[in-house]
């Protein structure tokens, strides 16, 4: 059955923007195995969308290009949206509030297991949407604890603004002066496992992002700074997924001023000078590889 997301049927609609790691350096490893990162992150004006409405029983529905990939997990109650709902309801119960049943709809527009945090963005949007629907405002400590239980990327997705994240993602520095970029996102639709990529790292003691020492001032300076950075997860991801090299090269040949992989891959982004150039590049990439995912977008400004 082809389901369409009728946003007007829901009390609240929440965007779940794609997360882009513009740079990522792995600086260490905790005793529990989680890796310490320094990462420069921004968010796209493109992502999943979620709807929330009161219902007589808990319901979850899916639509969107990539929803078929999540159908089995959703049936098993494994979707991060359902986990976020249950953790928030549990926290409300502990505080003496019995949260009523809810129908949540997820329009899945982002490729799955692709390094742009789709599941984390959905989990963060669920927390935001249900706080509005249920009229609750847990403390920031409670929210951080819930977010980290859901995934290392969830705290940054709750913020959804340009930032530098450290630790495993729990220490967040906002970048209010960060510019917007025209961007193309590309994915070969091969899913890449985050733990597997981390396990193939050659070094885990890289230096911190050099940015903290001298923050660029404007769009051009940021582009230059980003060009000089890297993603430490890109070499191991390339060994797991041959398509990343081809994809990255294809985006570069469309005139991107910088190209890199996001997160643990396989999504790569290209930065362009103008949105029109990004749109033209996405269209031409789509005609070259109609079986892959390409999306032109703009990223969110720091003070948006
Ligand atoms: C690569 C990034 O996307 C960068 O933003 C994140 O660090 C990954 O965040 P995520 O997908 O939310 O990751 P989680 O779901 O918390 O972790 C999945 C698995 O990846 C590995 N993992 C994840 C994050 C991290 N800092 N170190 C790790 O070693 C762990 O084996 C973990 O069990
Ligand atoms: N709502 C959801 N959207 C996407 N994946 C989900 C969702 N719920 C559960 N998952 C599971 O989580 C795994 C990771 O998916 P996700 O798309 O968040 O990965 P990612 O883009 O690599 O994230 P990150 O950049 O945070 O590493 C998937 O393999 C999928 O099985």
Automatic annotation (TrEMBL):
InterPro entries in alphabetical order: GHMP_kinase_C_dom (IPR013750), GHMP_kinase_C_sf (IPR036554), GHMP_kinase_N_dom (IPR006204), IspE (IPR004424), Ribosomal_Su5_D2-typ_SF (IPR020568), Ribsml_uS5_D2-typ_fold_subgr (IPR014721)
Keywords: ATP-binding, Isoprene biosynthesis, Kinase, Nucleotide-binding, Transferase
Domain of life the protein comes from: Bacteria
Protein name as it appears in the record: 4-diphosphocytidyl-2-C-methyl-D-erythritol kinase
GO molecular function annotations of the record: 4-(cytidine 5'-diphospho)-2-C-methyl-D-erythritol kinase activity
Domain GHMP kinase N-terminal: 79-159
Described function: Catalyzes the phosphorylation of the position 2 hydroxy group of 4-diphosphocytidyl-2C-methyl-D-erythritol.
A Pfam family this chain is assigned to: GHMP_kinases_C
GHMP kinase C-terminal domain sequence ranges: 218-285
Gene encoding the protein: ispE
This protein's record includes keyword Transmembrane helix: no
Listed SUPFAM superfamilies: GHMP Kinase, C-terminal domain, Ribosomal protein S5 domain 2-like
Record: residues binding ATP: 111-121
Catalytic activity: 4-CDP-2-C-methyl-D-erythritol + ATP = 4-CDP-2-C-methyl-D-erythritol 2-phosphate + ADP + H(+)
Catalytic residues as annotated in Swiss-Prot or TrEMBL: 19, 153
EC identifiers of the protein: 2.7.1.148
Pathway listed: Isoprenoid biosynthesis; isopentenyl diphosphate biosynthesis via DXP pathway; isopentenyl diphosphate from 1-deoxy-D-xylulose 5-phosphate: step 3/6
Family that this chain belongs to: Belongs to the GHMP kinase family. IspE subfamily.
